Amino acid sequence: MSRKLWGGAFREETGKALAKLSVSIGFDRRLHREDIAGTRAHARTLRAARLLSAGDLRKIDRALDVIEKEIAAGKFPWREADEDVHLNLERRLIEIAGVAGERIHAGRSRNDQVALDLRLHVLGSIGDVDSRVHALAAALVGLASRTTDVIVPAYTHLRRAQPILLAHAVLAHVEPLRRDRERLADARRRTAISPLGSGACAGTTLRLDRTIAARALGLRGITLNSLDAVADRDFVVETEAALALLMAHLSRLSEDLVLWTSDEFAFLQLSDRSTTGSSMMPQKKNPDAFELVRGKSGRVFGHLLAMLTVLKGLPLAYNRDLQEDKEGLFDALDTVRLALDAMREAVEGLRVRSGPVDLGGGLNATDFAEYLVRRGVPFRRAHRQVGELVAVARKRGVELQSLTLAELRAAAPRVGPDVFRALDPVRAVAARDVAGGTAPRRVRSAIREVQRYLKRTRPKRR
Amino acid sequence: MSRKLWGGAFREETGKALAKLSVSIGFDRRLHREDIAGTRAHARTLRAARLLSAGDLRKIDRALDVIEKEIAAGKFPWREADEDVHLNLERRLIEIAGVAGERIHAGRSRNDQVALDLRLHVLGSIGDVDSRVHALAAALVGLASRTTDVIVPAYTHLRRAQPILLAHAVLAHVEPLRRDRERLADARRRTAISPLGSGACAGTTLRLDRTIAARALGLRGITLNSLDAVADRDFVVETEAALALLMAHLSRLSEDLVLWTSDEFAFLQLSDRSTTGSSMMPQKKNPDAFELVRGKSGRVFGHLLAMLTVLKGLPLAYNRDLQEDKEGLFDALDTVRLALDAMREAVEGLRVRSGPVDLGGGLNATDFAEYLVRRGVPFRRAHRQVGELVAVARKRGVELQSLTLAELRAAAPRVGPDVFRALDPVRAVAARDVAGGTAPRRVRSAIREVQRYLKRTRPKRR
Amino acid sequence: MSRKLWGGAFREETGKALAKLSVSIGFDRRLHREDIAGTRAHARTLRAARLLSAGDLRKIDRALDVIEKEIAAGKFPWREADEDVHLNLERRLIEIAGVAGERIHAGRSRNDQVALDLRLHVLGSIGDVDSRVHALAAALVGLASRTTDVIVPAYTHLRRAQPILLAHAVLAHVEPLRRDRERLADARRRTAISPLGSGACAGTTLRLDRTIAARALGLRGITLNSLDAVADRDFVVETEAALALLMAHLSRLSEDLVLWTSDEFAFLQLSDRSTTGSSMMPQKKNPDAFELVRGKSGRVFGHLLAMLTVLKGLPLAYNRDLQEDKEGLFDALDTVRLALDAMREAVEGLRVRSGPVDLGGGLNATDFAEYLVRRGVPFRRAHRQVGELVAVARKRGVELQSLTLAELRAAAPRVGPDVFRALDPVRAVAARDVAGGTAPRRVRSAIREVQRYLKRTRPKRR
Amino acid sequence: MSRKLWGGAFREETGKALAKLSVSIGFDRRLHREDIAGTRAHARTLRAARLLSAGDLRKIDRALDVIEKEIAAGKFPWREADEDVHLNLERRLIEIAGVAGERIHAGRSRNDQVALDLRLHVLGSIGDVDSRVHALAAALVGLASRTTDVIVPAYTHLRRAQPILLAHAVLAHVEPLRRDRERLADARRRTAISPLGSGACAGTTLRLDRTIAARALGLRGITLNSLDAVADRDFVVETEAALALLMAHLSRLSEDLVLWTSDEFAFLQLSDRSTTGSSMMPQKKNPDAFELVRGKSGRVFGHLLAMLTVLKGLPLAYNRDLQEDKEGLFDALDTVRLALDAMREAVEGLRVRSGPVDLGGGLNATDFAEYLVRRGVPFRRAHRQVGELVAVARKRGVELQSLTLAELRAAAPRVGPDVFRALDPVRAVAARDVAGGTAPRRVRSAIREVQRYLKRTRPKRR
Hints:
The structure is a homotetramer.
Chain A: H1 16-22, H2 25-28, H3 32-48, H4 54-72, H5 85-97, H6 99-102, H7 110-146, E1 151-156, E2 159-165, H8 166-172, H9 174-191, E3 193-194, H10 210-216, E4 221-222, H11 226-231, H12 234-260, E5 268-269, H13 288-311, H14 325-348, E6 351-352, H15 365-374, H16 379-396, H17 405-411, H18 419-422, H19 425-431, H20 440-456
Helix pairs in contact in A: 3-4, 3-7, 3-10, 4-5, 7-8, 7-9, 7-14, 7-20, 9-12, 12-13, 12-14, 13-14, 15-16
């Protein structure tokens, strides 16, 4: 019987099916960097408590150096029989460092160890995601800068609403990304806490100063209750929730871009680089990037839900169910990173489509009503008068500006000859000169504001 | 044909089924306070833009006073034909204030109006939830104070792990609540922004100073893009995500309390007030509060997911799908409030069960191993030695402390006669004297720390 | 203290918050018909076991008649203190029938009683939903009949793919509904089983013949294990899963119809009856029915998920968590019914939009490639040749049929002069004469097949 | 530029990020068997339509033989540049079979091809899952057979309810598995339909007899609408819904077994093979199999939700979002298979724990009340009388049977001296002699019925 590191009290081997269900080294080896960092930090705690000699510490550090090189070189002897990244690394540490290695797990359990590793992983990964959100926002601002002179309909209910600058619609998609970055930063702050020293669930009888490891790892503090420390996966849920909402935003941006690049809307043109073809239809250039990203929102929502389900009704402290925290989180992080890259690439490749955009369909009806308000007509009355004129124009198959002044006055007596200026889409756009509005000077100022924001919040490095 | 406020261009009545599907006054009337507050604020903006006269403003304010009274008295003439809270209130305003009322909707759309109302509602409701979380945390600290001398097993994998104070396990459930309150505060911060003045999606051609209404409503600022302002429901998702995680915490607390109050665990006793009986089995006293709360986590998870589904793939700006933002949110908020009240009530009624708690099952094995570590045995070796002794004791049906010193030494040569002190559960608890650990002095200090926290963060009012 | 029907062993009143959390009469009174039917059936079982006299049975039946009338007349004295529909009805039964009423709960528990009631409710409601699915399918076939001569692009990736009949696209949405009906019928079959006689969880010591009640209620059989009988909510999950998928179908139909009725696609026109207007923009006629239905998919997904969450990790047998089975199910059923009605109404109101549909964009490229295949060119080669010609045509801003024969032959040497027939969209549609294809004769035959199916499967009554 | 098989009209390479997002060969290669089978079937269709010569067909079949061997030997040259399993296999087919290979894709698109492949995969996998459900059910019946003489409390609300045979509780978990198998069979029936010949979305102008391939593949029929054929993923959702509910059942079984094997409940004992140890606590033997299975319900729920999210609001026909159908489905299938194996293994290893089970706590109160019913006391009155006696006994810290006849009669005047027989747990179990009840003869008969069922429904092969 191959003896497990925890196997002292056991007399039988783990069953085959359980072994297969239970093994996590296939996915948790991704935590090797964090596990090694955590072990170095824990070693310093043990040293301070005189549970390691200076020589022990040196041996452990050197052995970890060796292990890092082995992993980097693809030569680390990962073993399924050792179940997970923690026991794989501990066994190897013992092989290399001998008795010093056998001392490392004092005052530690896999329960606090994995909680630490995962927190460190989330911290790094959020940084990664954040810099890609920044890059996508920059690409969108770039696109906005290229579209400040394109007037298109704004849509509500996918019906033409009011004339706007395309740049204004593009910038609308930057705002959610700014909120996403705030949420990710909040999640990060709550994640940067060390559970190390909480042991299996009740702490340890060894007198360890838990702040040593926390400081060594650059964390903000230590957890305050040992049971909570090993049972808590809030940081996973919170991160996944932030990622799910981010994916919802990308799915909405994708939808807009699928529409805007269609032949039917025809505002923008995708580059070949951001499309793929059909195995059957020779003419097809499909907006795959946007469709895939939109579709991938599903899996990230799913991972969030899965983690909430795992936690539901789970008694404290650690239960093995919590092993389910990792794969979903890793996939959510990978998916989001890939989606952000693909969106950025596709947005960078967008060109304005030549040819005029149809601005008919009564887009200027609100301008008309607001014109009447400025002439003293109560809005509710103005709305009704214009509504009736819209009906007249529609029946005739024309736009409002094609009606004569007399016709307009029949329904809206306060109309003056200057109304036709108000009905001109270019002027109408310029007139929406309110904070957050689509007037060109407001949009140009919004672009500059976002550019300053991006500069101010540029991530240190990718 | 009964004319809708928006019906100028329409020639047919709304179909019956659509009318039924579409009407929201049944649930959005809950927003009447917020809608009135928003209308008062918008009136001030219009006044500043000279679109209302001083007399108009006065009439509007007085009419709103009347409306408030009508609603409070249950006499407001809610009409399904007016679809939603906004049109109901606007129509009544016009009925009372006349032409002044007809002016109120200038530069406003239901799209920015409902976004504002819902934000105001979330702000108030989060306050409500927060004070109840505070109250539950206080009840838990109270329970912890009553259980500082009860030693019970800590559980991992629902197997006896190590001896702890029951108070320590109770306090473990306070930590998640503290994180919940932080998350709710973060959500609140991002919600306190005014979308008013964004109109249907593109702003307005009327020169409105949007900051006037924001200030009047005590909000932190204004939204920066008019399309985003009406399309954004991040604050709903973020609030629901925070509530879902809170419910996950309550479900875990419930599970622990269902177990702890069972005859099988028997740590605590529920009062009659927190149980109900069976229609068939005369002896039953069921822990309904905990079961119901645990079960209700499902609906809050469901509401979060529903909202993400609504947003998925939705093009900008406003789409009617967004009407689905309210019922789920309202129910999530109601559910959480009710759950928190019921948990608090039940926790307050918990009494320590008389009779000894079984502390057998090898609970002190880790203490034994750590004893060996303190005697210089590397931990991994100590773990194995103790594991073997556990197997010996189990075979014989006794606890570790029943083995003789000689027997212990057979497997663990470094054992001294002082080992039996280390194996005593009371001493073992006291020895877990590490930050976040279960030693009585640590637990007492943790209670004091939480009490200070609760005092510091006491909500102003319920 | 107001004594509960189950309160013999209790000395304190239920706490306020628990009472509020626990009471279900607000929503489960909807089960009164089923509860009464179940009670009549149970009375027959008791009578057969000589636990009721003939006189008792008569008194009970008459009392239930009275109760039915009271409820119909809105005069039944529902009491929150009686918690749920079962205790409300039992108490009233006792008030009216006296001692006979006190005998009714022998061998029965609310656990098997509510399981029965809910099963009966699902059976009836599925019938309801099914007839509405049937009606929507009929409306779609009607629309298909009106659109057999409208050629539009089929879309993949929301890019023009191949020319088809609009009727073909409409019929595509009937197929999922047929599958939905099958799934609902399967769910119904598994629901029609009686749990009555399983008691609280272990059956009863009274010798009851459980098949009597099952037969009286028209059910297929009885449950085989008493614990499973009260713990099982598969029929709820399965029904909700079928409803969730149905809503996914309606959301896809909605999306297609939002696009097809837009100014940009312009295949179909909505009637005023199926749109609503904007409070701000006088010209708007929004496709609210489709948007609301699309959005409401979220809540039904959420209810499914909520129920799975409730069940997750729940030990047998009955737990109070299961009370959460009802509200979500009721809302899912209501939502689906309403959505089906609104879709039907909106589909019935659709008219073909006058004006030609743009069939450009290389829609005939696949026809071209298949033409080459018929001329002996291997498909993969034909695809490449046509692809190159598409690129040439696009560069020039023309369609394939505008290239000269010589130009076509430069890339595709096997082309003959008959190619231009193959490139004509009308002929191309007719040529898709494969089972399930869009050739007019296939589509007409598909319409007839669906009409026969609808006739064959017409629900008995609404 | 490396030319894609679909690249005729393209002038630029796919962008890096899109390529990475888009490539599916990493996971869809799992479909190679199905893709090859589908290609063989399609070749027969083409042959019948004279679009392949007999020689072409032979070459294609032989090339596919070669490809199968290459894959089996791990020597197939999978290429990421070829994106997916379909293009990888088609390119290789062309390399081996030359011009014949270039003919294979006539009348076919990846859209109908992948729909077919996935259907075939689901058919095979459901078979796989079904045989494992069968095996788990068999293991449970085995456990039931070993526990027909163990009396334990049945629990409702995790409170002791009534005495039952442990075998009865074990059998309660077989019933859901039987329903699961029915649902899987229903899903299978609806999956066994061929979409082949539907092309990209509109069928094909080549005259193909679609039934040839369907028959060759052993399917029940062909899809009836070409757009639906490529857009439909109902079979994925339905399968995932069935798997999600199955996992909910396994999570409930897990919960029961975690409890029953705990020291606190102590009905059953896990073998070492089904537990693992702690890295820190030498005594621990954790029920990992059950915890992992319980936790893994989350991911399967998540996959179901993810797929519903993908479909929500997706227009017809094929969209690239649908590529998201596979990974979740594969993982759901893998998870369920693994979970079933691990559950079976763990159940097979369960032994009855020696030592008496505590049957106190008023377990016989219902028996008492039913005794009174048999003596003519109306149940509601009997319930109250026994409730009062329970309160008396509890106050005194004794069981009901410890009260004297006189004491019993004080509250329940109809009690006779034979009441003490009714209060004996062994007799009480035997008295629950109702269909589905826990009387030993009923349980033995239930075991035989399940054994017959298992024999009757034994899957052909694993």
